[in-house]
Amino acid sequence: MNTLIAIIGLGVLCLLFEIFELRKAIVPVTILGLLAVLGLDASEFNAPEAYYNNMIIVTKFSSAFSGLFIILTIFLVALGHKFYENQPSKISDFIAIKVFLLAGAVAMVSFGNLAMFFLGIEVLSIALYILAASSRLSLKSNEAGLKYFLMGSFASGIILFGICLIYGAMGTFDVTEISEMSRSAELPVWFPIGIALVTIGMFFKIAAVPFHFWAPDVYEGAPALTTALMSTLAKVVAIATLYKLITVMNAEISEGFQHVIVIISMASMTVGNIMALRQVNVKRMLAFSGISHAGFMIMTLLSTTNAAGTLLYYTSAYALAGIAAFSVILYVCKNTENEDVTNFHGLGKTNPLLAAILTAALLSMAGIPIFAGFFAKMVLFTQTIQAGFIALVIVAVINSIISVGYYFKLILAMYTKEPNETRTGTPVVIYAVAVVAIVLNIALGMFPSLVLDLLAS
Amino acid sequence: MDTSLTLLLLLAPFIGFLFNVFFGKSIGKSASGILGTLTVATSFATSVYFFMQISQTHQAIQIQLFDWIQISNFKVDFGFLLDQLSILWLLFVTGIGSLIHLYSISYMHDDENMHKFFAYLNLFIFFMITLVIGSNLLVLFIGWEGVGLCSYLLIGFWHKNQDFNDAAKKAFIMNRIGDLGLLIGIFIIGSMFSTLDYATLKTAITGTTNLNITWISIAAFALFIGACGKSAQIPLYTWLPDAMAGPTPVSALIHAATMVTAGIFMITRLNYLFDLAPDVQNIIAIVGAVTSLVAATIALVQTDIKKVLAYSTVSQLGLMFLALGLGAYEVAVFHVITHAFFKACLFLGSGSVIHALHGEQDMRKMGGLKKVMGITFFTFLISSLAISGIPPFSGFFSKDEILMVAFEHNKVLWIIASLASLMTAFYMFRLLYLTFFNEFRGTAEQKSHLHESPSLITFPLIVLAILATIGGLISLPTNSWLNEYLAPLFAKASHEAHHFGTTEYALMAVAVLGGLIGIGIAYAKYIKQNIVPEEDSQITGFAKVLYNKYYVDEIYDAIFVQSINSLSKFFNQYVETTLSSLVFGLGKVTNELGFQGKKIQNGSIGRYLFAFVLGICAIITYLFLAQ
Amino acid sequence: MNVSLILIILLVGAFATYIAGDKLASKVALFFGIAALGCSVVLLNHFNLGENISFLSQWINQPHVSFSLNADGLSMAMVLLTAALTPIIIFTSFGTEHKNAKAFYALILFMSFAMVGTFLAADGLLYYIFWELSLIPIYFIALIWGNGDAEERKKAVVKFFIYTLAGSLFMLVAFIYLYQKAGSFLIEDLYKLNLSATEQLWIFLAFFLAYAIKIPIIPFHTWQANVYQKAPAVGTMLLSGIMLKMGLYSVIRWQLPIAPLAAKEYMNIFIALGIAGVIYGSIVALRQKDLKKLLAYSSLAHVGLIAAGTYTLTIDGLRGAVLQMIAHGFVVVGLFFVSEIIYRRYATGTIAEMGGIRTQSPKFASMFMILVLASVALPTTFNFVGEFTVLYSLSQINVWFAILGGTTIILGAYYMLKMYQQVMLGETNTKAFADVSLNEGLALVLIIALLFFFGLYPKPITDLITPSLENIIKVINRA
Amino acid sequence: MNNILNEIGIENYIFLSTILFSIGVFGVLYRRNAIIVFMSIEIMLNAVNLLFVAFSTYHQDAQGQIFVFFSMAVAAAEVAVGLAILVSIFRNLGSIDINKLKNLKG
């Protein structure tokens, strides 16, 4: 709870800084603030508690994920420092929006009441709409914004409808009561329909097939930093929330529902990977790879009892790799009008370090050992086989093979092609973020237990 | 004592080889030559010593050096066995070996790589000794492959000429075909008797009854294939004539006297095994007889002096195999020895001729050398008489025994063999007359340089001629020293002096007569009528077939080499490409899918939302209406 | 003192090499390579004294993965092979200038680190991790320092990477499945499993896919020739000398003992596949125009025989296979180094452009000859020992296997001698060919010496590997 | 109030608002003018709001009505952002036909 309040306070602080013309200080202060919040969150980790008659319930789960979100936000804010340097007047707004977005995210994973859940999701979404469309003069950005907004609010409608039906069935928004009733009482049909609708809404947020169409376009159109945010933070938040929703609200998932999940997960991986093969725009490619990763993450919903740790691990691995990759992209595509692969030619020569980092990030996403990505997949497969879905795992494996295809396209571009332009300047922040992110990723790979055991049931 | 001497015997040539390889060039030609000769002479001396020893003690010497290869049911150790047979072989291998080394000093003196030549020769002797004295089949195999290697190196000694290299390659590969047979035989023996060691094997086989004869026969046959490869029997004989591409001393040493007798050695070694497989023995006998005849017929019309000798070698080896097949191992061994003497002499003689004519090998361009090359001619004459089986020369005794054995067993074989020896007499004297009699037919330039070869060359000739003359004494029909000497080797009692009656004398007479007839025809043709074989182009009819060796090479080439090459072509062009395109294909398909997928993502919000709604409906339907 | 030391040395070496910079890289790498070799020899000594040099420590709790390195005779033999070849391989590359050398040599060391790990790992997942890790460095070595047209190379290398990865991912699934059953990845627990025949079949096939691609066994070999040709000499040596041994080793260590029923059931099929590889590889090699490609196919033939040996499930088969692996490791490295030497002089791999070299460089010619003879398994060379044992084991299964597999000694001789004739013999080549330099000579002599020594006296290795192989046979015949 | 509900029956409210909701959905699917799409989305939301109220009465529980306020507020916020985006699009494109927005695809 305090975490949430603190975050919001920090957001307000950012706005105040604007008023007091302290723009220079904003980024550092926010980062410090967020670090403090992280500490706060850590302190709450072992003190699960419910606030405001169960509006917010802080659990291990929520605080662990909140921690992840905060870390990601720190990275994103840090990157913002460089990214917004040529529009200083807005920097505070952007930072503030990000912080509020974080607040929404935290609310989403620690909700105890569907109202809170709804608010959280809306805060997050609206903030994202703004960020997506944030570069006003670029039509691409606008289009991305509109697309995201239209479909997003459509999805919100669905979610809302779902919530409404649940409420209708249960007469309450309190998830604990709902789950109790869902076990005991004879349920009206609306309840499962409601659950289904909410789930679908969340599928949209994490861009699972067939609700994924917005993702590539929006990722491509939105400013790079926003894309980074969407593909890392937003996706992670959504899947975490969905996981929590499913686990909290109906303990045992019906046969049919499992089928749906399996099918959607298969479809997401396959479509995501296959579509990514022929992309030339790196952001777009990562969007599709994100879709396929969504497919992987969804697999956790099949073993709701013990997959929390796995999900946390997978998301952290994925998000950290994403951050690292995007920071390189930010550096490479700073002054280029698009983010095509051609911009990465010869990066291995011009900037070995960043090239290595990007390579590592991609390898992690591809699931090559010692990078966290590998263990994430490994553990995920283990659990899924335990749950008895070996076919799904086979499909997943085949997909990981396909995915290597496009990840390596980028690596090849960096190492075998001749550099086409010389980049100058070594932005310390980007280096720092990239290095830290990838180091964390590898550290997770070396010692998976650190995270895996965090939420071990 | 024995061990160290054995090692000396074995390693002396090897040291010579190493020395010649590393320092041969620096110490100069003659030096390296002498060194090479000395090392072999050392081995000869040692073998003589061992010979003395064993002829007193009659005790075979067993030496184990160390474990070599470990197999589940037995282990092969690196050991040597010096018994009557191996020592006998050692004697003439090293003896003739040293003579030929001596000969080569002078013969190869103009060659830039003389030191290498001697290195190879020494290496060959080393491997040959290994082959002979190995105490088990695998050590024999070392030598077996080793001599094959040396013959490869020496045939291709003048490696700038790709034809020679081809010949060398051919020899090696054909030998390898045999080697595979040998290996298979070894495998079967190994798994049947859990040993490859001669001594143990002998006890195992002779000691036990109710052995699985079928498998023994298969093993024996496999081994025989190996022998065919080394000893140039049908169907694996074609490499030997080509092997004449090598320097003449090599032909004398490897391709007449020693290496090619390895097959006979091996079969004699395992006589107790072959005795158990009568069918295989018959096959051996038949193959031997046929080979001798076929080779002899080919030799009738060859015009290259060395080719004639080569085919006569094949033919003589055929006779030996005939003897082996008839179970008369000691007879075969006897012929091996005498043959080693006179054939080495003949080759060296031809070498001396070629040397005199600066590399000319075509008999049509020779003649009348008798006057200038007295010694060569004389020794050559003796050896020819010997090979033609004219008493009292050595060849008469050995060949005669073979014929007798053949007569006892099977008249047909006897007829074939007699025919072969008749032809032998003919083509040998054809060779003799064409080379040494009448007028010189070469260029005037050559004529001017004609000379008798230096003493280093003639000396070995003389020695060998003497041996060829008196060699027969070691096994006289009535009391055969050789048979007694070899007796301990053989399971069955050897064909000891068949009571000498009229038939035997008659046979002898027939044989001698046959020889004389052959000589007579040759005389009539090449002295009386003074015919010179016509140019290749004019050869016609059956002669042409013979002249082209029944086109066997061509047939083999068509059947085996070509088919393998075309198969390889097929694999390379089709199979490989198909396989890789299959793998690539998967990637291509997925890529294409991605390409098509891009069309679906056409950027229209309407379509996206439509998919969205479809998704919702699908899920809801599945979940609630479908149940 | 335990085996993890050698891993540490190699890893540290990799970093040290990178830090040392382009100037010193090669020297530093060589130093650490030799250090690793020394270390492994010391370890061998400890091992022979009966000390326990294995290493085990908990790594991941959930799922239960432990960092377990187990050194038995087999592993030690393979480790020694790697540790011996690595410095030689590094040494062979002294003659050629590499751009960005520090990365190059660091990658070499890193690769041998991964491979040693693969040979030592006694925990399924750990093993898998090392197995995958070894793929990354060779990928970059071949990609960046390879020769030939860049696009072609890229295609070949990426194909190789994805193909091998594809295979091994199924192995991962198999391992996870086994984990479900055993509750641990530890090899001894996996050995204890008694799976149903069908399960075993699927596991066996999953493993087979991974190994058949890595070894490679036909028809999974399509990546090989191109990669061998395109990769730099060092890469090719690493691939053919050590990496493909990883596959064969894994067959013995993991595939057969874990799925013995399947192995026994379908033994003949897989033996036949291996032998088919022998014949096919030899025949395809006949018409190769590129030296390295020819060698690639020859090694396809040889490993085919080795694989056939392993699938006989007899002690002879396994022992022969291991001996042959080691022998082949040395020979093939030597031969590829020879091709590299020629490449340095003539800057071509096309056989047609060679010939008439022998007259100009007797030393080189002789050493090349010896290597050729070794690769056609002439007695007294190490290869003969291995090949003989393998063929013997095949003859025990079915004499026809031995005969067909034995064709290698005929066909092998055919294509190798043909190659030697075309490359070395004939009229003196117009292009000058300097005889081997000291470095080159040294490396070759070293290899040749080893081949002859063990050819005459394989006992040390045999004694080293036999007990562990017998254990594996025991495990295979359990239940 | 209460008895009215009983007379009409909660199902009918559900059907009604489902129909409204569907109308909104179809509006979103088939209209090309961004503004009208917005309005359709609003219809969807309001359909849900109606249902909320109905349910809250049905359950005799105020939470539902409170939630309506939430959703209204949220909707307002959404629209605010949405219109802002539309404005900037109109500035750049001179049109608000969503079919014209197809630059991002593939």
TrEMBL record, chain A:
Q: Which family does it belong to?
A: Belongs to the complex I subunit 2 family.
Assembly description: NDH-1 is composed of 14 different subunits. Subunits NuoA, H, J, K, L, M, N constitute the membrane sector of the complex.
Q: Which domain of life is it from?
A: Bacteria
Transmembrane helix found in the keyword field = yes
**Catalysed reaction(s)?**
a quinone + NADH + 5 H(+)(in) = a quinol + NAD(+) + 4 H(+)(out)
- NADH:quinone oxidoreductase/Mrp antiporter transmembrane domain segment(s): 113-403
Which Pfam family is one of those matched by this entry?
Answer: Proton_antipo_M
E.C. numbers: 7.1.1.-
Q: How does it sit in the membrane?
A: Multi-pass membrane protein
- Role: NDH-1 shuttles electrons from NADH, via FMN and iron-sulfur (Fe-S) centers, to quinones in the respiratory chain. The immediate electron acceptor for the enzyme in this species is believed to be a menaquinone. Couples the redox reaction to proton translocation (for every two electrons transferred, four hydrogen ions are translocated across the cytoplasmic membrane), and thus conserves the redox energy in a proton gradient.
Q: Where in the cell is it found?
A: Cell membrane; Endomembrane system; Membrane
Alphabetically ordered keywords of this record: Cell membrane, Membrane, NAD, Quinone, Translocase, Transmembrane, Transmembrane helix, Transport
**What GO terms are given for molecular function?**
NADH dehydrogenase (quinone) (non-electrogenic) activity; NADH dehydrogenase (ubiquinone) activity; quinone binding
> Which is one Gene Ontology cellular component term of this protein?
plasma membrane
Q: Does the keyword DNA-binding apply?
A: no
Q: Which residues cross the membrane?
A: 61-79, 115-134, 146-169, 189-213, 225-245, 286-305, 311-332, 353-375, 387-408, 428-451
Protein name, entry field: NADH-quinone oxidoreductase subunit N
Query: Could you tell me the Gene Ontology terms of the biological process aspect for this record?
Result: ATP synthesis coupled electron transport
InterPro entries from the UniProt entry: NADH-Q_OxRdtase_suN/2, ND/Mrp_TM
Tell me the name of the encoding gene.
nuoN
Automatic annotation (TrEMBL), chain B:
User: What keywords would UniProt list here?
Assistant: Membrane, Transmembrane, Transmembrane helix
Residue intervals passing through the bilayer: 6-24, 31-52, 87-105, 117-135, 141-159, 180-201, 213-240, 252-274, 280-301, 308-326, 332-354, 375-393, 413-436, 456-476, 505-524, 608-625
A GO molecular function assigned to this protein is: NADH dehydrogenase (ubiquinone) activity
Instruction: Report the GO terms under cellular component.
Output: endomembrane system; membrane
Where is each NADH:quinone oxidoreductase/Mrp antiporter transmembrane domain found? 135-424
Lipid bilayer topology? Multi-pass membrane protein
Among InterPro entries, the record links this protein to:
NADHpl_OxRdtase_5_subgr (IPR018393), ND/Mrp_TM (IPR001750), NU5C-like (IPR003945), Proton_antipo_N (IPR001516)
GO BP field: ATP synthesis coupled electron transport; electron transport coupled proton transport
Name its cellular compartments.
Endomembrane system; Membrane
Keyword Membrane in record: yes
Q: Which residue range or ranges hold the NADH-Ubiquinone oxidoreductase (complex I) chain 5 N-terminal domain? A: 68-118
Q: What is the name of this protein?
A: NADH-quinone oxidoreductase subunit L
Q: Encoded by which gene? A: nuoL
Automatic annotation (TrEMBL), chain C:
UniProt keywords (A-Z) are:
Membrane, Transmembrane, Transmembrane helix
Is the keyword Transmembrane in the record? yes
Any signal peptide, and if so, which residues? none
Per the UniProt entry, what is one GO biological process?
Answer: ATP synthesis coupled electron transport
Give the GO cellular component terms, alphabetically: endomembrane system; membrane
User: Membrane topology per the record?
Assistant: Multi-pass membrane protein
Q: Where is the NADH:quinone oxidoreductase/Mrp antiporter transmembrane domain?
A: 123-407
Determine the domain of life of the protein's source: Bacteria
List the Pfam families hit by this protein, alphabetically. Proton_antipo_M
Q: Which family does it belong to?
A: Belongs to the complex I subunit 4 family.
According to UniProt, the name of this protein is: NADH-quinone oxidoreductase subunit M
Automatic annotation (TrEMBL), chain D:
Q: Which membrane topology term applies here?
A: Multi-pass membrane protein
The EC category is translocase
Q: Which UniProt keywords apply?
A: Cell membrane, Membrane, NAD, Oxidoreductase, Quinone, Translocase, Transmembrane, Transmembrane helix, Transport
Q: Which InterPro entries match?
A: NADH_UbQ_OxRdtase_chain4L/K, NUOK/Mnh_C1-like
GO terms of molecular function: NADH dehydrogenase (quinone) (non-electrogenic) activity; quinone binding
What subcellular locations does the record give? Cell membrane; Membrane
Instruction: Spell out the protein name for this chain.
Output: NADH-quinone oxidoreductase subunit K
Origin organism of this chain? Flavobacterium muglaense
Query: Upper taxonomic classification of the species?
Result: Bacteria, Pseudomonadati, Bacteroidota, Flavobacteriia, Flavobacteriales
The gene name on file is: nuoK
